[in-house]
Design goal:
The protein is an alpha/beta fold. It contains 14 helices and 21 strands. The protein starts with 10 loop residues before the first strand and ends with a strand. The structure holds 1-deoxynojirimycin. The site of 1-deoxynojirimycin (NOJ) has 10 residues, from loops.
């Protein structure tokens, strides 16, 4: 079966280039390193790669601080390397998605440097959010940055500029048409170079409202926006309805324009996926209306408990909300901003959840290393590089754990990732997680992913919607079975710590854990496992 357009039910493999493969021994992954591993990527059975930023950047926020969006940072190679990567990917029938960062630039971008020089009231400053201090010298408002600390930094002449993230990431002023014109130039630049789509960073953040007004509870709001801060569900939801800098109506006008630009490339089927953390969840569907973007990330599975009620709710809600705008959902269990799924919910559970999700309609994102079942890297504070760790002054350890480089081969760290010293240490305990090792083990996570993605392509892509068979709402015991059928496949997940019987008929195709037995005409699903049956 196949799906048209290409992105609709694609499996997209996220590569964080700095952590993927180092081709020149400087301890950091690079574009030629990615190119050299494309056969491996293809062998996983994915359809596309999404590359986290590789543009010119002082790298204060892992490259999400872009100093020149139309060039490659020397640490990753050069534009010729980017072209070669794209060409080699296309030769293998892999599409390439670039990451575009429109909410902010790096403070090293020429525009920001010019704004600093030009001074208050200049047209150069109007490309950012520069404001005078209050009479008492305090910043224009009390917003707290997503990474902790004030959202405002003062420059020498006394004005403040807004940065929702690190102080090295000044927010752009999207009310200024010059900003959109420059981004359209960047989009065209990469499309003309061959990319097939974009992941839009902080897609919900471009338009700000009430920039000169204090928020009534800035600390509460800041905590509510952070995944690593526990908070009462209702309280968090109430606070998330009060964010003055996210999900404003104006962002949609921008994406309508971008959609026209993408569509102007006709049968190249250029796509875009929005990174939009919005509340309430229904708001996410606005980003994928017919005249806007193609996909919006659903982040619920990055935090959801391994609990049938919770997972039923997440899956059902995402499918049905997207259906209201005729879109398909997206699924992601890990990414470069959140703990790896194996560390968060457990190794067996992570395998079970992946197999459960691979059966669902829509597009699936796999974060490089997830296929190996990698846990988060264990790091000393002295190893950490994430601004979130430094700006939060303690409570957040930051996101480096998920960004530890991939182990490829051999018996000793750094396991073939680099001939030099990796930018984050790779623990010796990852010996059994190398690609080389997992390829020799038919029970490995790597084999599970490869086999599942092959079966997904064969039986499920384009197979339509799901029918729920078992959930707590369909009579199953809480935390026991969650099951649906789709096309010719029945997917059964046993979330409990003991084996569970189910009535499913059909031939076992794949199971994430131990073997499935048969007993009295019933199938016995192993604990913390998912199985697919061909019916
Ligand atoms: C989301 C990106 O995924 C994250 O890594 C980055 O720090 C922020 N946006 C700011 O660009």
């Amino acid at each position: 079966m196949n799906s048209s357009p290409w992105w609709k039910e694609a499996t997209i493999y996220q590569i964080y280039p700095r952590s993927f493969f180092d081709s020149n021994g400087d301890g950091e992954g690079d574009l030629p390193g990615v190119t050299s591993k494309l056969d491996y990527v293809k062998s996983l059975g994915v359809d596309a790669i999404w590359l986290s930023p590789f543009y010119t950047s002082p790298n204060k926020d892992g490259g999400y601080d872009v100093a020149n969006p139309r060039d490659v940072d020397p640490r990753f190679g050069n534009l010729e390397d980017a072209k070669e990567l794209i060409a080699q990917a296309h030769q293998r029938d892999l599409r390439v998605i670039a990451d575009i960062v429109p909410n902010h630039f790096s403070d090293q971008h020429v525009w920001f440097q010019a704004a600093l020089k030009a001074g208050p009231g200049s047209k150069e400053r109007e490309r950012f959010h520069f404001y005078d201090a209050h009479a008492d010298g305090t910043p224009p408002n009390n917003w707290i940055s997503i990474f902790g600390g004030p959202s405002w930094t003062q420059v020498e002449d006394g004005q403040f500029y807004l940065h929702l993230f690190d102080s090295s990431q000044p927010d752009l002023n999207w009310e200024n048409p010059e900003v959109n014109a420059d981004f359209e130039k960047t989009l065209r630049f990469w499309i003309d170079l061959g990319v097939d789509g974009f992941r839009i960073d902080v897609a919900h953040g471009l338009i700000k409202e009430d920039v000169l007004t204090n928020h009534p509870d800035p600390q509460g709001l800041s905590d509510a926006l952070r995944l690593d801060v526990a908070m009462d569900f209702e309280k968090r939801n109430a606070l998330l309805l009060t964010v003055p800098f996210f999900d404003r109506q104006g962002v949609h006008e921008i994406y309508k324009k971008w959609r026209k630009l993408f569509d102007s490339y006709g049968d190249r089927e250029i796509m875009a996926v929005a990174e939009a953390w919005v509340h309430p969840p229904v708001n996410a569907t606005r980003y994928v209306r017919a005249d806007e973007l193609h996909q919006v990330f659903n982040f619920d599975l990055l935090t959801a408990d391994f609990n049938s009620d919770v997972l039923f709710g997440v899956v059902e809600r995402s499918i049905s909300l997207n259906a209201t705008v005729n879109a398909l959902p997206t699924w992601a269990l890990s990414n470069h901003d959140s703990p790896r799924v194996a560390s968060r919910i457990g190794d067996e559970q992570a395998r079970a959840l992946a197999l459960f999700v691979f059966g669902l309609p829509g597009s699936t994102y796999v974060f490089a290393g997830q296929e190996l079942g990698l846990p988060d890297g264990q790091l000393q504070d002295s190893d950490r590089q994430d601004p979130m760790f430094f700006r939060s002054n303690g409570p957040s350890k930051g996101r480096d754990g998920a960004r530890v480089p991939l182990p490829w081969s051999g018996e000793t760290t750094p396991f073939g990732f680099s001939t030099g010293k990796p930018w984050l240490p790779i623990s010796q305990s990852w010996k059994d997680f190398t690609v080389e090792h997992e390829l020799t083990d038919p029970k490995s996570s790597l084999h599970l992913y490869k086999n599942a993605l092959e079966l997904r392509k064969e039986f499920l892509v384009g197979a339509g919607g799901i029918t729920w068979l078992e959930s707590s709402r369909h009579g199953s015991k809480e935390d026991a079975l969650l099951s649906y059928s789709r096309g010719p496949i029945t997917v059964v997940m046993n979330l409990s710590d003991s084996v569970q019987e189910c009535d499913t008929a059909g031939k076992l195709l794949i199971v994430s854990g131990a073997n499935v037995d048969a007993r009295d005409g019933k199938k016995v699903i192993p604990a913390r496992s998912t199985a697919w049956f061909l019916t």
